[in-house]
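Below is a complete specimen:
___
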Amino acid sequence: MDFSAVWDYLAEGANWSGSQGMGAYLVQQLLLTVTSVVAAALIGLPVACWLGHIGRGGALAINISNVGRAVPTFAVLVLLSLGPLGVGELGPYGRAGLATLVALLLFALPPIVTNAYVGLREVDREIVDAARGMGMRGGQLFRSVELPLAMPLVVSGLRLAVVQVWATATIAALVAGPGLGNVVTEGFASGNTAQVVAGALLIAVVAVALELAMAVVEKAAAPVPATRTRIGPEPRPETPASRT
């Protein structure tokens, strides 16, 4: 494989411009990834957090969301693209954009729902009991204690969803849909190996960049030091008078 040809393909401005250039495909795939993950979070996080807070119904919610893992995303995408959702273009999302969004949304739900529910349930019960003993109830307990401590796992679920959805969005090209998968499929169709490798390389590089970006967010969501998360008043410093 001549990697200089791959570099030449990536460096050629004409390959990035136009409605069928890599630039347009890159924007489409980023939009697909962000929109589907945000939609999945808006649907899945409230349900998972509420069930994790009350401690009931979580197994059912996780099993229902895991249907997205059991059913191949490509099969869902094909079925949706053949129906009303697959007709025409959806603005900047491209042809079959709505069908692709729905398929990716279903794929993004399992890690988001599972991690959020598990994160809430794994909060130390002693801390929760201490907060209740101080008079915290319902929403205050959830906002001030449970959610901050569960946030790293919640963000971890979002990170998994973002990277998985980005990688999976490339299959939309197999049903003439949007995204960078078109660069690869067009390269195969024309026998242009440099184009195939260039498309695959671009997809991989962006996936790594998204992973690193979400890792930074996950680290930032880690619980604050124990001195800041202490439940109850700070202990009074010992003074010479108190020692006597």
Remarks:
- The CA atoms of residues 184 and 196 lie 4 Å apart.
- The two ends are 82 Å apart (CA to CA).
- Residues 225-235 have pLDDT under 50 and may be disordered.
